[in-house]
Amino acid sequence: MYRYFYYLVFLNMLANIILFAPRILISHRFEGSMMAVVLSIPLGFTLLYVFVTSIRKFTGLGLPEILKNHTPNWFRIPALLFFITIWFFAGGITLISFSEITKKFINPDISSMIIVLAFIILVGFIARLRSETVLFSTEILIVMNVPFIIWVLYKTVTNPSMNYDACMEIVTHIWNMPTWDSLAAGTYIFTGYTNLAIFNRLMGTTKKMPFLWTIPIVGSCVLLTSFLIPVGFHGTINVNTYIYPWISTSDSMRVEFGLVERVLFIFIYLYTNISLAGSFIHWHVCLELIKSLMPRKKEKNYFSWVVIGIMGLITYLLSYLFNDESLYKTGVLFLNIRLASEMLLVLVVFMIARRIKR
Asked: Keyword annotations for this protein (predicted)?
């Protein structure tokens, strides 16, 4: 089952390309983004490695069971409530963002509220399924979409419009110190490992995850391409004028002899699948954390539907409050809080694992 761990990590890496992280790095391209990329790789991988090696000591247990067995209620309940909020918001902001992208680039005549409602229904239905089924769904989506995503990335790096001199101009600013915003955006590519908070229940008895060394290699490639390719297409100055740099980049390419000439439509289709998969994983983890706070004997069959309904309603109402600028600022704030909360999560699990070892 350990291959599903890599699905979780790589899925989050791919989702990183189209949402807030590239725009944040681009907005700080002269103010330390390159140094943030350099620092994000060892920092993100260190957090991943410490968390994975620590939680794997608790075979078959998720974060709720670990906290219940080894921490008092005054710590366990507030900690779970905090992480519930983080995972819920991670899924919700992705749904809202993609509803805006779909409206702008696919069909401007459809209300974004209808789109976000459709996404909520789809994601909510999958999120309430068993953890095994959620992982199987993730595997199917990755196998079906990743080859085409690799093809799109290949088309970008070999495109005649790709200006590598612009990329090298950004690299020359590598010695500028990074901001917290850019560091938070850079480390986001590794965040998929935190979903082991629930899915560790299914990872079998293997204490160590093999091939962890591949993660920083793939992560480096994903992070550099997601940041530098839009710069190469649009230039060091103009690239900052785009709300969704990678959408505009994909729209700069075409497949001359393809069934669909504009790469934009292929790109959005692929990343809709990837981002919705990320959303139902986040909401599934959120749902399982909420269920862990409920006494088992009081949990009814309809409880999951009620929780998903409330999560969907909150997301639907929040979508009224956002425009492009406020959504971006909220995404930046979320990534900043996410990095701090991720460090807290890793520290808690590490300290518990270390105490048990003694």
From this structure: Membrane, Transmembrane, Transmembrane helix
